Request: fold
Amino acid sequence: MSVRWHHSGVGLHLITPPWRLFGTIGKNFGSGRVFLHDSECARLYNPLRQAHTPVATSAWSFRAAVLSTENRASRIADALCSVGWISLATFIEADLAVALRRELHTLDQQDALTPALIGKGPRQRLRADIRGDRTAWLDGASPAQARLFVQLEALRDHLNRTLFIGLEDFEAHYALYPPGAHYQRHVDSFQGDNARRVSLVIYLNDAWRRTDGGLLRLYTPQSRLIDEILPESGHAVCFLSENFPHEVTPARRERASIACWFRVRPDTPLPL
Reply:
């Protein structure tokens, strides 16, 4: 069973819309320069609008040392506005990654992980040829999970205060891929249910090499490959849930991660 953390309201601490504060934003991507104008940034800042597509799709990662929670959240917010995704070399501290990995392995030894299903509701089914991981929902009860939930809640709050996207809660689960397992290309929003607005994947694997497989491949909606990301311990990828198809390539060794989704209310109407 998943546990979702709620907040009674969204604190709107900024009077001026954030895209007006940024104005026209320029970023260097490969051989060209991409400019995001007010209307484009506003469209990305408001994922309640239908069919929004990231303006720029070249790989863009922040390779930095451990960041403060606020600094990390600010970088994520900026990236979600400008290109719709971000890769962070260090999202959680090394000791927290170790504690979460140990907890996941304990759950595995206790047979507490269940084969992941695809689909939702009555259409859920087991398809190991599509998705081969085993999962367990996080509930925030253990010290390691409680510590992670504090960071996830801080990120949710920051995104609401700066991007005005109305994230009401989040849900998260462990995912353990045995050798040979993979996950075919998919998007994180369900057909007919776009409550998931922001996806976050956190990795828990020590000394991972490219030859170990298990890469996260991130694509544009037009199926153009954006990046291949190694699932290194403490590393994280955050992206707009509806915009980016992605897949996990077959792993040659056991692969551990946490998948998290920040959600709006299921009955949230689309703005005019």
In short: The first strand starts at residue 25 and ends at 29.
